[in-house]
Write a structure and sequence with these properties.
Organism: Rubrivivax gelatinosus (strain NBRC 100245 / IL144)
GO molecular function, one term: transcription cis-regulatory region binding
Distance between the termini: 63 Å
CATH class of the largest domain: Alpha Beta
Structural class: alpha/beta
Helix content: 40-55%
Family: Belongs to the LysR transcriptional regulatory family.
CATH superfamily of the largest domain: Periplasmic binding protein-like II
Keywords: DNA-binding, Transcription, Transcription regulation
Protein name: HTH-type transcriptional regulator CbbR
Length: 307
């Protein structure tokens, strides 16, 4: 079998995207070039790796097995590249950072500042929930992850770098929005719009409700902060969200964050990496950068958090 690492990267990306077109956009190749690489891999392997439909490509049984080894080989190559970079102490190359959805409201701005100081580092972002990020770390697909709750069942190093407040959000014309303060008991009869059970935001809400022994009605469950904000602004209910997800809407008066007993619920943002992995110089540079600058950056962006 004579398969190149470039072909393995193409195969893994097609498996991730579920289409040649999606993989081509991510890899900056043409769709015909991606299709050709897949055909060459299948020829070398001797098995059909994808089941093809009109618009989607799904892994065959042989493809699912091959994906495990492809990821393992690419992970080993990344470790070798990092080891060679450490010999030269080069702050260059590719840096892949995973992040939970709530981090997309501040991390790109931080990365822009980081890139100004380290222009030779090619930064890639991967978005996923907490479970997906743990899987990416386990497969060595990301160097570092930015998340709230660090993993408890995965050997990792988690270092807090900033406060992460969660607040009650309501429509601007909700009666809570104009109150000087709201007792926790007043939330008992409010309809709540919530995130999915596995999310950190949902866990934070449940901790708050348990603390005050509240059992409000969950009228809607959504997997997206953006969808929840739209529902709240439409007056469909209230929600508990990270303050860092509502900056634009709050500043524009489109959403309210009233003062509620026991809130904001203060958690921490963490920079996380696999415990057994030695970071590349590029990853180490970003780790130091976010630990040094993260708190001040978030404080400047969301200065109303402590008011």
């Amino acid at each position: 079998m004579n398969v190149t690492f470039r072909q393995l990267r193409v195969f893994v990306e097609v498996a991730r995207q579920g289409s040649v077109q999606g993989a081509a956009e991510v890899l900056h190749l043409t769709p015909p070039a991606v299709s050709l690489q897949i055909k060459e891999i299948e020829s070398q392997v001797g098995h059909r790796l994808f089941e093809r439909t009109h618009r989607r490509m799904s892994l065959s049984t042989a493809g699912e097995y091959f994906l495990v080894y492809a990821r393992r080989l690419l992970g080993t190559l990344k470790e070798a590249e990092d080891a060679m970079a450490r010999f030269a102490r080069l702050e260059s190359g590719r840096l892949t950072i995973g992040m939970v959805s709530s981090a997309k409201y501040f991390l790109p701005q931080l990365l822009a500042k980081f890139h100004t100081e380290h222009p030779a580092i090619d930064v890639r972002l991967r978005l996923g929930n907490r479970e997906a990020l743990v899987a990416m770390m386990a497969a060595n697909e990301v160097d570092l992850c930015v998340m709230g709750r660090p993993p408890v069942d995965f050997a990792s190093r988690a270092e807090p770098f900033a406060k992460h407040p969660h607040v009650l959000v309501t429509a601007p014309d909700h009666r809570f929005a104009h109150a000087e303060s709201v007792p926790a008991s007043a939330l008992a009869n409010e309809p709540f719009i919530v995130r999915e059970p596995a999310s950190g935001t949902r866990t934070a809400l449940q901790e708050y409700l348990d603390q005050f022994r509240l059992k409000p009605t969950f009228v809607m469950e959504m997997p997206s902060n953006e969808a929840i904000k739209q529902a709240v602004m439409a007056g469909m209910g209230v929600s508990l969200l990270s303050l860092h997800t509502i900056g634009l809407e709050w500043s524009a008066g489109l959403i309210a964050a009233p003062h509620v007993e026991g809130l904001p619920l203060m958690r921490r943002w963490n920079i996380v990496n696999t415990a057994a992995k030695q970071l590349s110089p590029a990853a180490e540079a970003f780790r130091y950068f976010i630990l040094d600058r993260g708190e001040a950056h978030l404080a400047a962006m969301f200065s109303r958090a402590d008011q």
